[in-house]
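Ligand-bound model needed. F0G.
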Amino acid sequence: MQLTRKGLWDGVIREFRDFLPEIKDDAVTTLKEGNTPLIEAVNLKSIFGNVRVLLKFEGLNPTGSFKDRGMTMAVSKAREEGARAVICASTGNTSASASAYAAAAGMKAYVLVPDGSIALGKLSQAMMHGAMVMQIKGNFDEALSIVKEITANYPVKMVNSINPFRIEGQKTGAFEVCEHLGHAPTYHFLPVGNAGNITAYWKGYREYYQNDIISSLPKMMGFQAEGSAPIVLGHPVENPQTIATAIKIGNPASWEGALKAREESGGIIDAVSDSEIIEAYRVLSSMEGIFCEPASAASIAGAIKMKRNGVLNEGDTIVCTLTGHGLKDPDAAINSSPKPVKVQADIKKILKIMKL
Ligand code: F0G
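Prediction:
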């Protein structure tokens, strides 16, 4: 028998080359990101009835979030241009991804994160990948404006999603959804923080539509956390609050892109409360066996809200992007779960607890 290459995946730059800006092959920095599963939420029928629900589990990317799709592009491009260092502001996942891809490219990474507002898993990733981690006494929006000023004046490449190559890479998530389904969904639900991802998905869907690969477009449904919902309110939020630290952002960089996605697709940008986010987070892990981080569950929380409001109809196909893995934020998981039972190493006592 012969070995075949069946099933091998070469990362989003090489797999979607025809739809991405050109990058010299020797500059390509990939950890084989992308090709994440689209999982049918079979056990959520009690909530969604005959609405078909699919989960694009981006937590299964190499650093555990969707950021890797954009980071392979941004870091490869920076490498092609001869940059020696990259920098980003981050609520955690961008910093983890930038640090990993910079390490793979042999570049230095500088990351600015809001002190005390970043999940432990993400911080540990940036530290392990050898980035210079700066915990600033301020929020994400302040960190981003400092990064903008630095990159305007110093030879350090910005890898936040205002870097257009990030959006280019992230649009491949929409391509994969279409490839898996064979068509576009009726609705696509996403959490919204800095609003780069909803901008990217909409770009991806439009490009497949313009190339006659799909014959319809989804309505884009973006969800912010209630205490960090500048787009819903129509003005920046000075002191954003939410348990979903990944989307604790008061002045999104891709605000315009999110509005465009909403308007052109006929979708919405709405908010969900922290308790709705936690409910969705727990429902997914306990009923579907899928552990995402709290911010990711905003997409499902939004879908549940839309189902309850009568927006979704029988026969609709919806895709919810689960942006990051649950292991990123062990504190959130432990704090929102019943405490484990402490018991002596005694079979009788254990059986009693098991009610056997
Ligand atoms: N979900 C997760 C897990 C995220 O980390 C982010 C953003 C979002 C959703 C929102 O995506 O910003 O494109 O609207 N995290 C950024 C970061 C801000 O720094 O890791 P967005």
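DSSP finds 15 helices and ten strands in the chain.
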